[in-house]
Write a structure and sequence with these properties.
Length: 196
């Protein structure tokens, strides 16, 4: 984060009018008059992650798990992020797994952690690592695995124009990194879904 003060809403809307002019538009024409305000509101939604401290999402845990000591996997979490190089959407799916040590969290909380980091300017590699490291730090499980499969619109709609190409990243910690059998079990659990 930088120390420069956050610009005002008016300054943000003026910047959007500048971009419209730079693209060749007349920001004063009827159809565009409310566009800067709409874009500013959309930014509040797309980049709402800056206002969330992801670790706080994982503070409520449950310890009565009857000795459950197998993989917990949340599959196909929708990823809606933006690349920090082109400010273009990154759309895809995340699979988040952990092997609990005594404590588990509500599954919706894992999805909220994904969302808190996705709703920022990102590169997919860092997004993947941040999600895994946060779960690892707060829950201290035996292992964490995060796999993200996403399309980058900066690549599909411009530049090399490669629609249908997705990028897969993974970040494995603990037993998922160190134990090939556990990692293979996880990849089979994820793969089941891919083939359906
Ligand atoms: Zn990009």
């Amino acid at each position: 984060m930088t120390d420069t003060p956050r610009p005002s809403r008016d300054e943000a809307e003026a910047a959007i009018r500048t971009l419209l002019r730079w693209a060749g538009e007349d920001p004063g024409r009827e159809g565009l008059q409310d566009t800067p305000g709409r874009v500013a509101r959309a930014y509040e939604e797309w980049f709402g992650g800056y206002g969330i401290e992801p670790e706080t999402l994982l503070t409520t845990t449950f310890s009565e798990v009857e000795g459950y000591d197998e993989i917990v996997l949340l599959r196909d979490i929708r990823i809606e992020s933006h690349c920090e190089h082109h400010m273009a959407p990154i759309l895809g799916r995340a699979h988040v797994a952990y092997l609990p040590r005594r404590r588990v969290v509500g599954i919706s909380k894992l999805a909220r952690v994904v969302e808190a980091y996705a709703k920022r300017f990102q590169i997919q590699e860092r997004l993947t690592a941040q999600i895994a490291n946060t779960i690892d730090r707060v829950l201290e499980p035996h292992g964490v695995a995060v796999v993200i499969d996403a399309e980058h619109q900066c690549m599909t709609t411009r530049g090399v124009h490669q629609p249908g190409v997705s990028m897969v990243t993974s970040h494995m910690l603990g037993v998922f990194r160190d134990n090939p059998a556990t990692r293979a079990e996880l990849l089979a659990m994820i793969g089941d879904r891919q083939r359906r």
